[in-house]
Amino acid sequence: MAVDTRPSTSSSSSSTSTIVTAATAASVASASASASATAITEPLAWCTARARIPTPDGSEYFLHIYENRVDRKEHLAFVFGDAIRSTSLDRVRPGETEVDRIKRGAYTGRIRPVPTAQAATRVEDGWISHAEASSAVSSSTMTTAEASSRASSSTLLATTTTTTTTTTTTTTMASATVDSDVTMLDVKALSPSPSSSSSSSAVTAPLVRIHSECFTGEIGHSARCDCGEQLDEAIRLMKAQGSGVVVYLRQEGRGIGLGEKLKAYNLQDLGYDTVMANLLLNHGADERTYDVAQAIIQDLGLEDIRLLTNNPDKIEKVTENSSIRVVERVPMMPKSWEAIHEGREDSLEVKEGAVENKIVRGKELNAYLVTKVSRMRHMINVPVPFQ
Ligand SMILES: [Zn+2]
Questions:
Q1: Residue among 286, 299, 306, 361 flagged as catalytic
Q2: Which of the following is catalytic: 101, 254, 288, 306?
Q3: pTM of the full predicted structure?
Q4: Which of 70, 155, 76 is nearest to 116 (CA)?
Q5: Catalytic residue check, 286
Q6: SS3 318
Q7: How far is the CA of 348 from the centre of ligand 1 (A)?
Q8: 281-310 per-position pLDDT tens digit
Q9: Domain GTP cyclohydrolase II spans what residues (predicted)?
Q10: What is the pLDDT of residues 100-139, one digit of tens each?
Q11: Cα 381 to ligand 1 centre (Å)
């Protein structure tokens, strides 16, 4: 049942990936015939799907799923901003249709369903609203899945937009009309596609956070660590800047897994610190690895990055034998400690929940952070009461 979605390969074992250039929805028509023409260095990780995730404040990001050659986990990337593209996702796969590409997220801009080809002809210069699309349907409305499997035709629109701080410009529209056994491409270039890196944002290296899964801290409201707070803060910063990547690695409990992490928590309740607890369970103090993160960052076409971290180990490992350069380390100050430094601890508002503004505090967190500074080289300014 398992489907091998790995990219085709021509040589083995390297974490670097030099795959064909990004293929947009609009370029599929010409690219499909030459899909396998380019020599490929086998990647360590590759993106199998991506989708738009709207968030409560009206912003959105694209969640990317990665498979890899290191473990059986599906690692993730939260990608903010339209300029950052996955090379492996965009690569044209032999035999795939426009709808195939849209289903796995290999399109540019935004997609909207338009149930009839006639409706598509009504779109002259940009978005068609959902209401307009619905009113254009006289009989039945088909889902995308139905559209691709039924003989009657339907139309999917892929509308490419470029958003800057001041303007929103519709640049390219591609529509794929799907019939029972024929895929037709009708690509309209409403205006020339701009270079994706022509804006001033290209000058600034994007923010990147390499974040390891923490069920307890992100989902379980735990005050033993600040992982949920760090994830929220990284997302908040990337939303504000309109660009960035959270590489979300599925390595719970600094790589020992959730079950072993719970055992470590019991040892911590006996008085051992987070490092000693791991060692007593015959684990390393930190068993996380970053070669998959390195491969994902490379797949997203990033070289100069600003890394959100307090952990020097991440900087060393993500740049090791790599073209990736950390041009700036952006510290992640624990919110409760930041409040102490600024003398506003008493006014600190603690909110629960993993979506936004979660601020963690408590004696367990303080002990955890002190251990990270004293035993794991983390670069955090420790407040006087805990020194
Ligand atoms: Zn945690």
A1: 286
A2: 288
A3: 0.70
A4: 155
A5: yes
A6: helix
A7: 21
A8: 999 999 999 999 999 999 999 999 999 999
A9: 205-331
A10: 999 999 999 998 876 665 444 443 333 333 334 333 333 3
A11: 19
